[in-house]
Specification:
Blueprint (H helix, E strand, L loop, with lengths): L24 H17 L2 H10 L1 H11 L31
């Protein structure tokens, strides 16, 4: 059988599959549909309404937009502070 690292059946054939750098057409069409629906619903106004009325639905969407890694300059470190929201905001936690 030869080398164990060789695949017996299948494997990448020359010229098979999408060329490097070509976007996936299905994902692009779904993204375009979602953005089209957002535009028809009112765009930013609608998102603001969802954030106010249903923050549990809005927060996962927000988390997808945030960068996964925050890198700073060692010479100019990133300063941050944690602030607690007042009791009566759409983002406050129910204490029931």
């Amino acid at each position: 059988m030869g080398n164990l690292s060789e695949k017996v059946n299948g494997g990448r054939r020359p010229g098979a599959g999408r060329k490097p750098g070509v976007p996936n057409k299905i994902q692009m069409s779904v993204k375009e549909m979602v953005l089209g629906a957002l535009h028809e619903l009112g765009g930013q106004k609608w998102l603001k309404k969802v954030a106010t009325e249903d923050p549990k639905a809005f927060m996962p969407l927000l988390s997808k937009c945030l960068p996964t890694v925050v890198a700073g300059d060692p010479e100019n470190p990133i300063n941050h502070a944690v602030a607690f929201l007042p009791e009566k905001t759409p983002f406050s936690v129910n204490k029931t």
